[in-house]
Specification:
The chain is built from 14 helices and 18 strands. 48% of the residues are buried. Among the domains are: 205 residues, FAD/NAD(P)-binding domain (3-Layer(bba) Sandwich); 91 residues, no CATH class. By secondary structure, the chain is α/β, with parallel strands linked by helices. Strands 1, 2, 9, 10, 11, 12 and 18 form a 7-stranded mixed β-sheet that branches. The protein has a 7-stranded mixed β-sheet with strand order 7-6-14-15-16-13-17. Bound molecules: flavin-adenine dinucleotide. Flavin-adenine dinucleotide (FAD) binds next to helix 1, strand 2, strand 17 and helix 12.
C-alpha cells in the first residue's frame, strides 16, 4: 500500500522540526515527518553514557538571529530550564591562555611575537582592499597580517576544517568581520589590558538538564502531542523517485508526496534519487570533514583557571583537538554528581587531507589534555566517551556554490527541497537557529511563495545580530 501526503519531511533534527513546527502552527493537516533514528535532535542531539555523563555531539552554544527562535526556546524549557553564561572563550597558545578575540589581546603573547603580530596587523589594515584574496588562506593573511596568521589563524583553521585554508572560499564570511583596530590593540599592549568578547551582551543559554538534545526532544514531544501520528521515528528513507514523487523506506513501505523537505545530507539525497546519473558529477564539489567528539569524565573539581572558561581553541600541534568545551560548566547536571566529577569535551577533525595521527583518538585526546595543562594528572580521568560524526562540517569549498547552484534548483524542480546544515551545505547558516529557520522558511515558501531569507540571503540574516565570529569565520 502507498501512503500519500502533501508534505513529507525527512529528519527530526532542528531543520525538520522547524518545518514540522511551522506546519503545525499554520494548522496544516496533510504532512508527515520520518526520522531514521529513534530520537529527535540529529547532530544537535545528546546522549547519556553508561557512567551517567551527558554529552552533546560537539559543544553546542545557542546564539540566535531570530526572535521567534528565542521565544520558542523560552517556551520549550521554561524559565527554570536554562542556565545563562557569559561566552568566555580562550586560545591556548605558547603555553598560555589568550582571551578571544585573539587579535585584540596580543599583549598576552611573548613580547617579540606581540610586536611582530601588531606590525603585521597594521600592514594588513593599511593594505586593506588592495588585492582581492583568491581563497580563505589569502583572506586570513590579508585580514590579520602575517604574525596572527602564523601563530593562530592558519594553524587553527587547518585543524578545524581538516584541510589547508587555500582549499576554502572566503566570500561566505561576508564583509563584516572587524579587521583589527590597530590603535586599540596598541593601547591594549601598552596597558597590558585584556579586551574580551564576553559580558552581559554576549551570553548564551544551555539546558539545565539533558544537554542540547533536550530542546529538540521536548519540541518533538510537543508536536507528537499536538499532531498525533505525524512524527515517526525509526523510519529510514532508502530511495527517492522524484519522477513519481515517491519515497521508499527501509521497511519497504512507500510514501507518495507532493513536496519533499529533505534534511538528509544533500549528497546522500541525490545519490538515493533517480537524479543521481544526471547530477552525480556535481557532488565532487561538496566537501565535508568528519568530527570526532571525545568526552572526558574527570574526578574532582575543575582547577580555578578553568572554572569559568566555556570553550577553548587549540591551534598548535601539541594536541589533536581544535576545540575543548568545559561541558560540566554549561550545566552541572551534565555529570552524575557535580560534587565529585567534572567534564571536558574535545573535538578532533578528520579528512583525507588531514587523517588522524593514530586510531587511538581517546588516548591521544587525554595525552593532549595533559600536554596543554587542561588535565594535570592522568589519574584524574574517570573515563572517556567517543563518537565519530561522519559529516561534521559542511566545507565552504572553492566550488561549493557552483554545485549548489545546480543541485538545489534541479531537486526543487522535482518537488524536493533539500535544507539544513548538510541539506543546503551552507556552513554560514548551519547552526541550530539557522537550520530551524530553514525548515520554517521552506514551509512558508511552499505555502505562500515567501522568500527563504536564510538560504538565499545569509549575510542579511547574520547581520541582524552581529556577534564576534569564531576564528574559523563561522559563528560557533
Ligand atoms: C561539532 C559540531 C558543533 C556544533 N556546534 C554548534 C553550536 O555551538 N551552536 C549551534 O547552534 N549549532 C552547532 N552545531 C550545528 C548543529 O548541530 C546543526 O545546526 C543542526 O544539528 C543541523 O540540523 P539539521 O536538522 O539540518 O541536520 P541534522 O541535525 O543532521 O539532522 C538531520 C536528521 O535527518 C535524519 N536522517 C538522515 N538520513 C535519513 C534518512 N535516510 N531517513 C530519515 N531520516 C534521516 C538524521 O538521523 C538526523 O536526525 C554544531 C555541529 C557540530 C557537528
Amino acid at each position: 500500500m502507498i501512503e500519500t501526503t502533501r508534505i513529507l519531511v525527512l529528519g527530526a533534527g532542528p531543520t525538520g522540526l522547524g518545518a514540522a513546527w511551522r506546519l503545525q502552527a499554520l494548522h496544516q493537516r496533510d504532512w508527515l515527518l520520518l526520522e531514521a533514528d529513534g530520537t529527535a535532535g540529529g547532530l544537535a542531539g545528546s546522549v547519556v553514557d553508561e557512567h551517567g555523563f551527558t554529552w552533546d555531539f560537539g559543544g553546542h552554544v545557542q546564539f540566535s538571529h531570530y526572535g521567534y527562535f528565542d521565544r520558542l526556546m523560552d517556551d520549550l524549557l521554561g524559565p527554570e530550564g536554562w542556565h545563562f553564561h557569559d561566552r568566555e572563550s580562550w586560545v591556548w597558545v605558547r603555553n598560555r591562555f589568550v582571551p578571544y578575540p585573539f587579535q585584540l589581546n596580543l599583549h598576552r603573547l611573548p613580547a617579540d611575537e606581540a610586536r611582530a603580530s601588531i606590525d603585521g596587523l597594521a600592514r594588513a589594515a593599511r593594505d586593506a582592499g588592495v588585492a582581492r584574496p583568491a581563497n580563505f588562506g589569502e583572506w586570513i593573511d590579508a585580514t590579520f597580517g602575517e604574525g596572527i596568521a602564523r601563530t593562530f589563524m592558519r594553524p587553527y583553521n587547518h585543524k578545524v576544517w581538516a584541510r589547508p585554508p587555500e582549499r576554502l572560499a572566503w566570500h561566505w564570511i561576508g564583509d563584516r568581520v572587524a579587521v583589527g583596530d590597530v590603535a586599540r590593540v596598541e593601547e591594549n599592549l601598552r596597558l597590558h589590558r585584556d579586551d574580551v568578547s564576553w559580558g552581559p551582551n554576549n551570553q548564551f543559554r544551555f539546558p539545565v538538564r539533558g544537554g542540547t538534545g533536550a530542546i529538540w526532544r521536548t519540541l518533538a514531544s510537543r508536536l507528537q502531542a499536538a499532531a498525533p501520528g505525524r512524527l515517526h521515528f525509526g523510519q529510514r528513507a532508502v530511495s527517492i523517485d522524484t519522477h513519481a514523487h515517491e519515497v521508499q523506506l527501509a521497511s519497504g513501505e512507500r510514501i507518495r508526496y507532493e513536496h519533499l523537505i529533505s534534511t538528509m545530507p544533500l549528497d546522500v539525497c541525490v545519490r538515493m534519487s533517480d537524479l543521481a546519473p544526471q547530477l552525480g558529477a556535481h557532488l565532487a564539489d561538496l566537501e565535508f570533514s568528519s568530527t570526532h567528539v571525545i568526552g572526558v569524565g574527570l574526578h574532582g573539581q575543575p582547577p580555578p583557571a578553568l572554572a569559568t572558561k566555556c570553550w577553548m581553541y587549540f591551534p598548535e600541534s601539541n594536541c589533536p583537538f581544535y576545540r575543548v568545551t568545559h561541558f560540566s560548566h554549561y550545566a552541572p547536571a551534565n555529570v552524575p554528581d557535580p560534587s565529585r566529577y567534572w567534564s571536558l569535551m574535545a573535538e578532533v577533525s578528520e579528512s583525507a587531507f588531514r587523517p588522524l595521527a593514530s586510531p587511538d583518538v581517546d588516548g591521544d585526546t587525554v595525552r593532549g589534555m595533559l600536554a596543554t595543562g587542561l588535565v594535570r594528572d592522568a589519574a584524574q580521568v574517570h573515563h572517556t566517551w567517543h563518537r565519530r560524526l561522519e559529516r561534521g562540517y559542511p566545507i565552504p569549498s572553492l566550488h561549493r556554490d557552483r554545485a549548489l547552484g545546480v543541485l538545489l534548483p534541479a531537486l526543487a524542480s522535482r518537488g524536493v527541497w533539500s535544507r539544513g546544515r548538510f541539506g543546503a551545505w551552507k556552513y554560514e547558516v548551519s547552526n541550530q537557529d539557522h537550520s530551524f529557520a530553514q525548515g520554517v522558511e521552506v514551509v512558508d515558501h511552499l505555502l505562500t511563495d515567501a522568500l527563504e531569507e536564510t538560504l538565499h540571503l545569509p549575510e542579511r540574516v547574520n547581520a541582524r545580530r552581529p556577534s564576534q565570529p569564531a576564528p574559523n569565520g563561522g559563528r560557533g
